[in-house]
Amino acid sequence: MLLYFNCLYALVFGVLHQMIYAWKLSIWAPPLLSELLTPMLFYIWAFVEVLRLALGYFGNLAERVPWLMAFWVLTLFPQPAIQFYFMFVQRIAGWFILPIELTLCIGMQLIYIAQLVVSYSTSKRLVAKAAADFHLQPLDAANELALGA
Question: DSSP H helical segments within the chain, as ranges?
């Protein structure tokens, strides 16, 4: 369910972030650092978010632990770091943050934290299930699998 709601929230976040950024650019002149980094980091966030959500969906549906671990790693870094930039570094660089931007970023960070916890426990359960399935196989079937027959 977290993946489903994250897809919807990411879409809303992406559209609103672009609209707010375009509006702020039309009214105020940003510092050079914010003018260069913000669009670049947004497009990195958008690309990685699509990849991360696809890994989470297909890893969960197919019960593939490597895909879920890739999802977990992408949830750990770079996504929260980019949200941290949107929340705090822009202000330090000399540009202002609207309250709606801060609210959107905090919501995304909360989703990331929840997904880290749930995906880690899911991966542990899938590894335990795979290990139990491996130990339940007859010895002859395990040897045939190991020999590639």
Answer: 2-27, 32-62, 65-76, 79-84, 90-93, 99-136, 139-147
Q: What is the DSSP letter of 63?
A: T
CA dist., res. 35 & res. 90, Å (int) = 10
Q: How far apart are CA 54 and CA 4, in angstroms?
A: 11
- Cβ proximity of 44 and 82 under 8 Å: yes
Structure tokens at 45: 């966030």
Helix, strand or coil for residue 130? helix
Give the single-character DSSP code of 97: -
Amino acid at 60: N
Give the tens place of pLDDT for each residue, 94-134.
Answer: 888 999 999 999 999 999 999 999 998 988 998 888 888 77
